[in-house]
Every structure is written in structure tokens, then in C-alpha cells.
Design goal:
heterodimer, A: mainly beta, 11 strands, about 0% helix, globular, B: mainly beta, six-stranded mixed sheet, five-stranded antiparallel sheet
């Protein structure tokens, strides 16, 4: 069974540009969550999508947005990039997401490493 | 607010046991998780424990949960160089996963 696939794995942008990252979840998983990982802030929750709807959102500015398609694939977009947006962006999928009965196990992709110059 | 705490670094000798500690915030957390991150990779689920359990053992891994003190620990027996990684504990706070800062485990030969 294929895992969570994130593309691109690495990218370099300059300040002011925008970027779109893609995540293909495990087949059958309907929830996709995004996290930003930096050495200083650790893992921070960006947002979660379930059945094409944003269900939860972390404390990030509106420059960070996302969407989910009918096949559960998800994209996140960062506009007007800043140097501080340099990070590893991790996507995770799960069957149901959020608080659900049973252990809600997140399966992570390898991440997209964004460098902003 | 939510705050999961871990010590940042741990060094052990190969063959010794490693114990990684974590304190969490939400006493109503139903499940608590341990994830492992190797260099250049995403997070990989190691194990999780249901909140009505005190202990869970899975091969070389032992998880201990003290709900009263909101303390979670992960013990790795016979630690190997391949165990060198960052270990994250996590809880579900509200509807979101909250991860600790991660403990970087270094295994010395």
C-alpha cells in the first residue's frame, strides 16, 4: 500500500513569491493535515482537511491556505513568501482525522523542504 | 493552552536502555503517541497507548503512562545505532494533534 506522497521534496523560492505543495494521502484516508517544522518552533499545526472541507486551523496568517480535492489529495499554498517560511512542510493523512473513536493514527509523508532566499 | 514538554537531548551507549520522558497538558487525552523522525524523513508512528492503560510493551519498546502526573515515557531496550533519531510524543488537544519539541537520541558505539 503506497504511503503518503509529498511533492516536491525540495524547492527554493525568493521572498515575495508564492509556492504550492502537494500531498497524496494513503488510499482510503479522508483526512489530511499539514504541519510546519522548523528548528526553532518545532512542529506546528497548520490546518486539517476532511472531505474537501477545512475542519481545523492553526495559528498561521492568511498567507497560508490549503484545499482538498474530491480524491482526498490536498494542496497547500503560501503566498508572499518570507524568509521565516523556510521550513519542512509535512503532510499527514488519517482515516477519519480529528477526535474519533479509536486511536487516530497519523501517517506522515517525507515532507517538502522549502528554502526562501 | 496546550504544551507538551520533552527534554531535547539524550545520549546513550549502544546496548544500554534509553528512556525518553514527556509531560503533556490535556488530562482528557484518550490516546498518547510516540513518533520517530530519522534525518530527512517524515514522522513514523512507533506506538501509542490508550489512556486507561499504565503500560504497553511492544518488542524493545515499553511505554509507561502516569495519568495523575500527566507523564509519559518511552523506554527502548538494547538501544542500537539505528535508533538514533528524534522522538516526539504527542497528544490530541481539542481536535488537533499537539507534538512535543522532540528528543534527539544519540547512540554512541
Amino acid at each position: 500500500k503506497a504511503g503518503v506522497t509529498q511533492t516536491p521534496r525540495y524547492l527554493i523560492k525568493t521572498r515575495g513569491q508564492q509556492v504550492t505543495l502537494s500531498c497524496s494521502p494513503i488510499s482510503g484516508h479522508r483526512s489530511v493535515s499539514w504541519y510546519q517544522q522548523t528548528p526553532g518552533q518545532g512542529l506546528q499545526f497548520l490546518f486539517e482537511y476532511f472531505s474537501e472541507t477545512q475542519r481545523n486551523k492553526g495559528n498561521f496568517p492568511g498567507r497560508f491556505s490549503g484545499r482538498q480535492f474530491s480524491n482526498s489529495r490536498s494542496e497547500m499554498n503560501v503566498s508572499t513568501l518570507e524568509l521565516g517560511d523556510s521550513a519542512l512542510y509535512l503532510c499527514a493523512s488519517s482515516l477519519a482525522g480529528g477526535v474519533s473513536s479509536g486511536a487516530n493514527v497519523l501517517t506522515f509523508g517525507a515532507g517538502s523542504r522549502l528554502t526562501v532566499l | 493552552g496546550e504544551d507538551v514538554e520533552q527534554s531535547l537531548f539524550l545520549s546513550v551507549r549502544e546496548g544500554d536502555s534509553s528512556v525518553i520522558n514527556c509531560t503533556y497538558t490535556d488530562s482528557s487525552s484518550t490516546y498518547l503517541y510516540w513518533y520517530k523522525q530519522e534525518p530527512g524523513a517524515g514522522l513514523q508512528l512507533l506506538t501509542y497507548i490508550f489512556s486507561n492503560m499504565d503500560m504497553k510493551q511492544d518488542q524493545r519498546l515499553t511505554v509507561l503512562l502516569n495519568k495523575k502526573d500527566k507523564h509519559l515515557s518511552l523506554r527502548i531496550a538494547d538501544t542500537q545505532t539505528g535508533d538514533s533519531a528524534i522522538y516526539f510524543c504527542a497528544e490530541i488537544y481539542g481536535q488537533n494533534f499537539v507534538f512535543g519539541p522532540g528528543t534527539r537520541l544519540s547512540v554512541l558505539p
